Amino acid sequence: MMKIKVPFFDLTAQFKSIEAEIKSALDEVFKTQQFILGPPIQALEEKIAQYCRTQYAMGVSSGSDALVLSLMALGIGAGDEVLLPPFTFFATAGSVSRLGAIPVFVDIDPETFNIDPSKIEEKITSKTKAILPVHLFGQCTDMDPLLQIAKTKKLFIIEDAAQALGAEYKPKSGSEGRRAGQIGNLGCFSFYPTKNLGAFGDAGMVVTDQPDFSEKVRLLRVHGSQPKYFHKSIGINSRLDTMQAAILLVKFKYLEKWTLERQKKAERYQLLFQDALSSVNGLRLPTIQYQNRHIFHQYVIRAPERDRLKKYLAEEGIGTDIYYPLPLHLQECFSFLKYKRGDFPTSERAAEEVLALPIYPELPEDHQTLVVDRIKAFYKKNES
Ligand SMILES: Cc1ncc(COP(=O)(O)O)c(C=O)c1O
After folding, report:
1. Which of the residues 26, 125, 322, 352 has the least number of beta carbons within 10 Å of its own beta carbon?
2. Residue 116 Cβ < 6 Å to ligand 1
């Protein structure tokens, strides 16, 4: 019998379902020949602002630039300190460092993998300017304590919501919770192709409720130029591409449906794994805090003997991934910050234990069943 191959991620089925619409949206752009800041940009900005329940949204060229531009809009630069978790994608800290500011790491909560609010205050100095929480894997950071700290210590909050478009914090029964990106001063999103709303290349967005920050990001994304060729400040070239915006507008129509599908797959994993949870010591599934709206950008388990399990699954034709194998405080490029192993034990442990399983809206049921069956088989084999 032929073995089923289970890719970690597959966009082809999704593309097939919207191919005609995408091609026709691109045709429109070709007809107008307005490639820079064309009409789809504003249309997408309106949709995303509405979706995130913010006043403003500004399209930029990537999630990484969304972070850089947000920091720039707040005037963060040389010598300023920004508090952030070390267990995240590189761009969170890279953006801070690129501006000459200093990433100051704060360990994570072992349940959610997000920054641990109880460890923030001890890291605040006279140079601290902002907190940069990351809503990792699609679940919001516990933001209320951060808002409180930011208020008393007069700090800004930039949300790295690259993985969390549509995630909601503390939804209360009957009323809606706060959306990722709307909670801090500025929120940053990525439309990298594998994100829940993915472009056909790089793209990103900044959202905010504050008109001055919106103006600044708009200005900074076009070299600080206003009017053209007159420069108020030194910005960068970081506009959202019109073709990407046209594609994202088509895909946006399906985002809610796709999110529901992801949530269903997450629930199904929960069911399928149930019996293994008591028998496999150390196996842990994602937890949802405060009944948050988790959008399951990734489905990340903690797995004993993670590296051996990953290898075994690969041999069985099952794709998995590790987000992230080395916390940022231990990255070579940040050695000048003088952190060492042991500084952030929860992040270091997570890096050794996490394993991301296939999750995307079109993930076939038999693939999902196979993933869980093979994981159980691995631990059974280990027992004997
Ligand atoms: C947490 C986080 N921050 C920032 C980024 C950067 O986004 P981009 O790849 O669009 O530059 C990403 C995505 O790759 C991310 O996952």
Report:
1. 125
2. no
Kindly report the pTM of this predicted structure.
0.97
* Residue whose tokens read 């107008």: 32
Single-letter residue type at 340? K
CB 197 within 8 A of CB 14: no
Cα of 191 vs centre of ligand 1, distance in Å, is: 8
Asked if residues 134 and 141 have their Cβ atoms less than 8 Å apart, the reply is yes
- CA 69 to ligand 1 center in whole angstroms: 14
- pLDDT tens for the chain, 384 residues: list them: 678 899 999 999 999 999 999 999 999 999 999 999 999 999 999 999 999 999 999 999 999 999 999 999 999 999 999 999 999 999 999 999 999 999 999 999 999 999 999 999 999 999 999 999 999 999 999 999 999 999 999 999 999 999 999 999 999 755 668 999 999 999 999 999 999 999 999 999 999 999 999 999 999 999 999 999 999 899 999 999 999 999 999 999 999 999 999 999 999 999 999 999 999 999 999 999 999 999 999 999 999 999 999 999 999 999 999 999 999 999 999 999 999 999 999 999 999 999 999 999 999 999 999 999 999 999 998 876
Distance in Å, CA 188 to ligand 1 centroid: 9
Instruction: Specify the residue with its C-alpha closest to ligand 1, atom 7.
Output: 63
What are the start-end ranges of the E strands in 242-370?
299-302, 354-357
